[in-house]
Known about the structure:
Elements: H1 2-29, E1 39-46, E2 59-66, E3 74-76, E4 83-85, E5 90-94, E6 96-100, E7 103-106, E8 111-113, E9 119-120, E10 126-127, E11 133-138, E12 152-153, E13 168-176, H2 182-187, E14 203-204, E15 213-214, E16 235-240, E17 243-250, E18 259-261, H3 268-281, E19 289-293, E20 296-300, E21 308-313, E22 327-329, H4 335-340, E23 342-343, E24 345-347, H5 351-356, E25 359-367, E26 373-384, E27 392-399, E28 409-420, E29 432-440, E30 443-451, E31 457-460, E32 468-473, E33 481-486, E34 491-496, E35 501-507, E36 509-511, E37 519-521, E38 525-527, E39 536-538, E40 543-545, E41 547-549, H6 555-588
Parallel strand pairs: 13-30, 13-31, 17-18
Antiparallel strand pairs: 1-2, 3-41, 4-40, 5-8, 5-11, 5-36, 6-7, 8-38, 9-10, 11-12, 11-35, 13-32, 14-23, 15-20, 16-17, 16-21, 19-20, 21-22, 24-28, 25-26, 26-27, 27-28, 29-30, 33-34, 34-35, 36-39, 37-38
Helix pairs in contact: 1-6
Amino acid sequence: MGIYGAMSTAVTGLRAQSFALENISGNIANSQTTGFKRIDTDFKDLIPDAPQKRQTAGSVLAQSRSTNNLQGDVKSASTETFMAINGSGFFVVEPTIGQSDGTALFSGANYYTRRGDFEINKGGYLVNGAGYYLKGLPIDPQTQNISGSVPQVLKISTAFLPAQQTTRIDYQLNLPQFPKTRAYEDSQTAGSELLNAADFTNVTPTLVADTAATVSGATTTAGANSTTIASNLDTLQIQVGAANRTYAFTNAGGTAGLSIDLNSTTTVGAVLSHIQADLLANGAPVGTTVALSGGAIRITAGNITSSITVVDNTTGSTATGFDLANATTAPTVSASQRLSARVTSIPANESDEFVRQSISGGAISVYSANGAPANVQMRWAKVNSTANGGAEVWNMFVATNAQATGTQTMWTRYGGNYTFGTNGSPSPAVDHTDIAGLTVNGVVIGDVRLQHGTGGLTQFADPNGTAEVALVQNGYPAGKYVSVGVNDAGRVAVSYDNGETVEVAQVVTANFNAVNQLKREDGGVYAATSDSGEPVLDNGGGISGSSLESSNTDISEEFTKLIVTQQAYAAGTRIMSTADQMLQEALNMLR
């Protein structure tokens, strides 16, 4: 090999160390480049063919060695769209190939990068600092499930979020075994914690008073002549509930309203039917009757909340007239009637008493299909108990019209009877309660399901005597775009000013069997090669939002390599100097 061979080998050494120096220079230059992977240098010796006893060390060849499998430090960032990959894998990105009418155009080619400094641009795309567009899988806004399997360039819409109608309310609560209503607190008597149906108008089944105003004279029949009970100029005043009517009997003028003509209304039955119809039309409770019972005239109050006041002013020729004692009869109800009575709705003028005899069941805002809000208030009333001789039974009421006045309905009962066993669980079990066509304060919500779930509705003892409530609903009003971010599940989520956050895309990562065989491109991206293999896509997360991966370059390590490279290069130049001197000496032998 000789002196010339030594010089040639030294030159390859100098070339190899220069190549290593170039890699060191690039590593140090990119020590602050996001997601940069340093390039290390491998040296490969080249051995000339020679007999075993004549082998030489040979020359050297420098090669690059990628460190794509070595992760840099992950640091937090204040930008919500910045992201870093914890572990292996690469973001899938794509460059633009131009624009058409201001819209970015893409070729469909995939590139791969660890550079996660993505920000949303004016077109709604997520673009990193090197100008590459992020790709991922879209998410169905209704089901929140990933739709599709081929990554596509992600474009974030900044349009308004449409309102979502409330269709389900997750409603879990514990009702106290002994509710401490205001009625109970006022009286402290047994049974006062229960809702007393006798105090309300709208009750089913209708409760009839045990006592009522009746005639005390001779019996009669419906077909008897009307003059057997009244004469010209007689008056009869009857007050049942809100109806306070004074009827005048005449022999001429016709029957209408408060005037009853005995010549045209000729039978007892016809007179009583007219009075009954007039009372019901002018404020008497539903179920009020004016009829014959055992031949005697009997006036009942219908619903048990109303008393009956009768003033019989007989001035005509009939000696007995109606023969009803001038008095007020307060109706009563039997225990069996009271236990079976269920209040169906509460008018505004009875709301205060209802609130006094019930406990709060919580309130929640719900939304119609166009986003109009409505506040749903719920109250629970215990209507029976084992201590009262029955079962543990509750009724639920919803404030369907908080602005109601007078006899307009304010509270409506839903769900029927909720009966609880001795273990505090509903018997039978209650998984949910469906409310059909819910309208609250004039806002049409539609069909709503109160989802209690297994064990979500109980009756356990509570020293406070109040209900413990948890309420969550699935509706919301329309929302204006506020910001976009990436969560730790790798999902791109858009936030709106209505408090909603909607996941719109899933960031995917690409893994390679031979990750260090990827081809490096400008901007910190890599292209797949035949040596690296095809990418294996993963949407299982492994992504940290509001984070960035730093360069994996270690400055102190690079400086150490720099010193070693410098010394190796200097040693190579000494070989050249020594070989030159030896060659000079060989030439001097000819002189």
